[in-house]
Amino acid sequence: MAALPRRIIKETERLISDPVPGITAYPDESNLRAFTVAMDGPDSSPYEHGVFDLELYLPDDYPMCPPKVRFLTRIYHPNIDKLGRICLDVLKDNWSPALQIRTILLSIQALLASPNPDDPLANDVAEDWKKDEAKAIGVAKEWTSKYAKSHTASGSAE
Amino acid sequence: MSTYEDDHNISSSRPQEDNERTRTHQSLSSIIDSFVTSNHSHIESLPETQESQIETFRNALQVLSAEEGSTLATDLIGVLEDQDFNPKKGLPDDYLDTLDRVSLKDLTPEDDCPICTNRFVEDKYPLIVKLPCNAKTKHRGHIFDLECIGPWLKMNATCPLCRFDLSELNQKRKERLAEELRLIKEQEEEEEEEDWDVYG
């Protein structure tokens, strides 16, 4: 495997020594370009108190290309489909090499706090969201407590 | 004797259905044809037309994949999404030569390249350039290692920090250059004529 670019090493070190509040990201031992991410649902959002697992992969062209990020935990959100794929401009056309893993993860956390049903990825969820927002938020809360259990809480419950 | 169709009060609709099916297929194939041919000939001249054609093509594929469960169509949609079909987004290779160089003397030890995140002073032989993005910094433009900004500008015409579109400026620069060349040529021709006067 080719040597890891210095930028990736620096980013990884900083993610561990100075983590983004509410987000942890660790590289896999077998592949330092693959990260396991745990993200707290933002306060006063339907995802509050949930912990969501994501996988993040830095392609060979990174930082000329955006990281590939996907939710592993099921989530009810108009911009995230059932495969966990995320519809977010900075992960596609609006990527810039001045962005970093931490800024991307912050953008995803912000997307959880402000869903955008007018630019949907999960069409059915977006429809529900537009038809009856209160009900959709209820479902999102339900899914959060069902699937996005905090690790510490589920650990102590076992 | 009445036929099956008469008994059930339906007219022989099957041939019609077939007609419709063929028609959809004809239009689908013509869409695909026009996409493929235009993709060869007009990439540079008609980016917008091409974009709308990609959209039509994508829609056609979605019909195919939804109504007939064509896995090939589904795969092709995936390819379209992955490739992002932006054939003419970057700047030409010679654009890098036009960028202003920045000397280490004009930078503070803390200044770093936003792409590699290394401080410029750490580089023994730094090649630092400034983009003409008119950012409100002390240098009036964002600063990068030439080595880092090069690959980005080949694929994209924007400043990574402020998304300023550099392609328009580049177009103007080219026009100015062409104008200057024309003037020089005219002058040379005039001089040539004068030469004839003296020696002819």
TrEMBL record, chain A:
Ranges of residues in domain UBC core: 3-149
The keyword Glycosyltransferase appears for this protein: no
UniProt EC number: 2.3.2.23
Keyword field: ATP-binding, Nucleotide-binding, Transferase, Ubl conjugation pathway
SUPFAM superfamilies given in the database record: UBC-like
Any one Gene Ontology molecular-function term assigned to this protein's record: ATP binding
Top EC class of this enzyme: transferase
Active site: 87
Pfam family, one: UQ_con
Entry-linked PANTHER family: UBIQUITIN-CONJUGATING ENZYME E2 (PTHR24068)
Family per similarity comment: Belongs to the ubiquitin-conjugating enzyme family.
Protein name per its UniProtKB record: E2 ubiquitin-conjugating enzyme
Organism annotation: Candida tenuis (strain ATCC 10573 / BCRC 21748 / CBS 615 / JCM 9827 / NBRC 10315 / NRRL Y-1498 / VKM Y-70)
Origin organism lineage: Eukaryota, Fungi, Dikarya, Ascomycota, Saccharomycotina
TrEMBL record, chain B:
Keywords assigned by UniProt, alphabetized: Metal-binding, Zinc, Zinc-finger
Disordered: annotated segments: 1-29
Superkingdom, taxonomy of origin: Eukaryota
Compositional bias segments (type: Basic and acidic residues): 1-23
InterPro entries linked: Znf_RING, Znf_RING/FYVE/PHD
Secretion signal span: none
GO cellular component: cytoplasm
GO biological process: protein ubiquitination
RING-type domain: residues covered: 113-163
GO molecular-function terms, A-Z: ubiquitin protein ligase activity; zinc ion binding
PANTHER family: E3 UBIQUITIN-PROTEIN LIGASE PRAJA (PTHR15710), E3 UBIQUITIN-PROTEIN LIGASE PRAJA-2 ISOFORM X1 (PTHR15710:SF243)
Full protein name: RING-type domain-containing protein
UniProt source species: Candida tenuis (strain ATCC 10573 / BCRC 21748 / CBS 615 / JCM 9827 / NBRC 10315 / NRRL Y-1498 / VKM Y-70)
